[in-house]
Amino acid sequence: MSLRRPTPVVPAARIGSLHFIAMGGAGMSGIAQLYHDLGHRVSGCDRVATEALNALADQGLSCFVGHDAAHLAGVEVVVASSAIPADNPELAAAKAAGLRVWHRSEALAALMTGQTGVSVAGTHGKSTTSAMIAVMLRAAGADPSYVIGAPLVSTGVSAHLGGGEVFIVEADESDGSFLQYPTKVAVITNVEPDHLDNWGDAKSYFAGFVEFATADEVEAVVINADDPGSRRLRELLMAAGTRTISYGKAPDADVRITGIGYQQTRSYAVLTTPEGEHRLDLRIPGEHNIVNATGAFTVGCLLGLDAGALLGGAADFTGTRRRFQLVDDVDIGGGAVRIFDDYAHHPTELRAALQAAQRVKGEGRLIGCFQPHLYSRTKNFAEQFGESLAIADHVVVTDVYAAREEPVPGVSGELVADAARAHAAEVDWIPNKQELPGHLAGLVRPGDLVITLGAGDITSVGPRLAEVLRERTTS
Asked: What is the DSSP letter of 459?
């Protein structure tokens, strides 16, 4: 996969029928949903029938399982992501027929045309921050449109066509897509090297964020003042005269966080702005979520919305799927085992998730079950993964979820397991994911908290673990 460069797009209103390749994912399904809501004829396919694909079919979209050039009958625009190979039969047929072929980011950019684009970028926290902005702005009466990378727990949807002028997107930097969006308010949660298989090195990765924040249409940048990478970027932007509004615990943050506290799975803090102090209350745990919510609050204030209404929206936010999401709570006799799932797939994300889990685990142990994502990332960050995983009381590591990559000789999840052992963690190396539910069921004790971690199919382990525990308890 290579980096993308911005290309001109026509507004969505001037586009006819569309077909989405791999429409069953959270990002693609949301864009398809909005085109359908605008009145376009929309079809799409995926390798398997996902929950999102089935939901779109229920709403009248033409959904197919499997890829076939015959699906393109009557289609004017074909939409694909960077993950779709050139020899995909639908993509190849569309190009051979001279159809308009859009990357996912181009289809989303066309929807944003003429709107106040709020694009949320950063190495970590994009989904949660963009979701918080959507919920908080809606609570303040703005009714924004949005496309985010994970469904809201409260509604089960990842996209909404609003009646207001604001359009919120999760701006993915992995392949350069974030440069495509017509952004007026750029939000940067942090900048830490990642996706080096595309960007090449940390310097180029950082330069991508500079380009994102200084695009011609950008009117203001809301940026984290605590993260070293975003703080460095903030200094460059301020020196260049770019309007920046910072948030964080740093004494010089424009919206400063103090008084952080926790009560079970809830979090709270005091936010100080030039206009005064405000109390932030969240239903979800973790300092990282307090920082994310502060970024969302800063965006709302920048847009002129009522602070009290924004904070009310924050208090009602129940999270997004796969972000410290409670999967089940199983009584195994003598106490319960709580099972959580989290999308964390970078060392910093692992650290934040495990720190939050340690705060809410209670008297039992924290068991972290990690599936590395991508061979390139595993090779680049094995040592850092091990250090982060050592926060857990017991660690279980399985093999790499390859996603778009081919295996790399000498690179496996065992590199991460060995690194965690080197940091004094108790570690089990279970390369076969299918063995994880049974292994974890034999490991847990009453009162333990288990959290599955990773961006791959590790998410299926938690529900199966709950089934195994119930089967053992009732047998």
From this structure: G
DSSP string, 112-138: HTTSEEEEEE-SS-HHHHHHHHHHHHH
Tell me, yes or no, whether 109 lies in a domain. no
Three-state SS at 247:
strand
Q: Do 259 and 122 belong to one domain?
A: yes
Quote the CA–CA distance of 123 and 103 in Å, as a whole number: 21
Task: State how far the Cα of 75 lies from the Cα of 41, in Å rounded to an integer.
Answer: 9
The model's pLDDT over 22-54, given as tens digits with 9 standing for 90+, comes to 998 877 999 999 999 999 999 999 988 888 899
Flag whether 32 is in a domain.
Answer: yes
Q: Do 138 and 33 share a structural domain?
A: no
Task: Choose the final residue of a domain: 257, 285, 316.
Answer: 316
State pTM to two decimals: 0.85
Residue 1: pLDDT band by 50, 70, 90 thresholds? low
Q: What CA–CA distance (Å, rounded) separates 273 from 178?
A: 29
Taking the chain, what is the end-to-end CA distance rounded to the nearest angstrom?
A: 49
